[in-house]
Design goal:
CATH topology: TIM Barrel
Order of helices and strands: HEHEHHEEEHEHEHEHHEHEHEH
Radius of gyration: 19 Å
Distance between the termini: 54 Å
Structural class: alpha/beta
Number of domains: 1
Low-confidence stretches: 1-11
CATH superfamily: Aldolase class I
CATH architecture: Alpha-Beta Barrel
Shape: globular
Number of helices: 12
Strand order of the largest sheet: 2-3-6-7-8-9-10-11
Number of strands: 11
Mean pLDDT: 86
CATH class: Alpha Beta
Largest sheet: 8 strands, mixed
Helix content: 25-40%
């Protein structure tokens, strides 16, 4: 594909172009991070380029990229870099995706083996254009990693597979160690923040994972600072626990550009600590709640804690 064609298909939320700009607010001191400069960062970047792999670290402009890549941790984003959805919070490109790369499962597994990862996070763009939403491709990536590095634990962060019959069963049958799907925000904000998704569908998706295979850990995340109220966050926590979700992440929403959903406010570190305390009191096995918390940040360490928490809860 020529660069010109690629550019035509890759568009940053064209439907927002006519809307008024939302000024990007200056970050408070507790949320600023250093620019990535380490040798390991550049080595990780070159490895991803050499294997033609995409990372959500870059595509979503994650603030933790310098820290994670310096440790040679990267969250790989499969099925291309163009999403069929246009969520108002997300920095990933929207447009018509390319065909799936049949070599991607092998390349992902090669990267995992080369980096010596004990725990890997695999995510993807939404692929509403595919009959199964990309479920089989997820399964093939998981299988390739299992064959290349059997000891590596695998965490997946999936789309919602909305209106994709039997897609969830295909992914669960591949037996990832952690199944993550982010609710992202409170129900009242879905129409403005996540218009292509449905809150109760996403919640039910995670509940079904447990019904199909109770041994798989389930995980979901929220952004705060979008205009939600505290009691609404508490209700989402309760909804997650009813769905038997094991692990919740809560992080600060950071507005990528003036064309994205406006930031309402910066949530203070003390408020994040209070959310953590309340989440543990509601029965979550694992909670990560801080301004810079992201779904895959410290995922390997968190998985070890999660497994230990389950063993303790079971009395082993």
């Amino acid at each position: 594909m020529t660069e010109a064609t690629h550019t035509e298909q890759r568009v940053r939320h064209p439907e927002k172009a006519h809307k008024p700009d939302n000024p990007v607010k200056r970050k408070p001191h507790w949320i600023r991070v250093k620019a990535p400069v380490s040798k390991q960062y550049h080595e990780t970047r070159e490895l991803m380029r050499g294997l033609n792999l995409t990372t959500v670290c870059e595509e979503a402009a994650c603030p933790n990229i310098g820290e994670c890549w310096a440790k040679k941790h990267a969250t790989m984003m499969i099925m291309g870099e163009i999403c069929t959805r246009a969520c108002a919070f997300c920095n990933v490109s929207t447009g018509k995706p390319n065909a799936l790369d049949p070599f991607e499962p092998f390349n992902v597994a090669t990267a995992v083996k080369t980096m010596g990862l004990e725990h890997v996070v695999i995510t993807s763009v939404d692929r509403d254009d595919l009959d199964d939403g990309g479920a089989q491709h997820f399964a093939e990536v998981i299988q390739a990693i299992r064959e290349a590095t059997p000891e590596t634990t695998i965490e997946i962060l999936t789309p919602d597979f909305l209106k994709k019959e039997k897609a969830l069963e295909v992914v669960v049958a591949a037996k990832p160690d952690v199944f993550n799907h982010n609710l992202e925000t409170v129900p009242k904000l879905y129409t403005s923040v996540r218009p292509g998704a449905r809150y109760f569908h996403s919640l039910r998706l995670l509940q079904q994972v447990k019904e199909i295979d109770p041994t798989i850990f389930t995980k979901s995340g929220l952004m705060v600072g979008l205009g939600e109220e505290k009691d609404e966050v508490m209700q989402v926590m309760d909804d997650m626990r009813i769905a038997d979700i094991d692990f919740i992440t809560i992080g600060q929403y950071l507005q990528p550009t003036v064309k994205h959903h406006a930031l309402d406010r910066f949530v203070t570190p003390d408020e994040f600590k209070a959310y953590e305390t309340q989440a543990y009191a509601k029965g979550f096995l694992m909670v990560s709640s801080s301004p810079l918390t992201r779904s895959s940040h410290h995922a390997g360490d968190d998985f070890a804690k999660l497994r230990a928490a389950r063993e303790k809860a079971l009395g082993n």
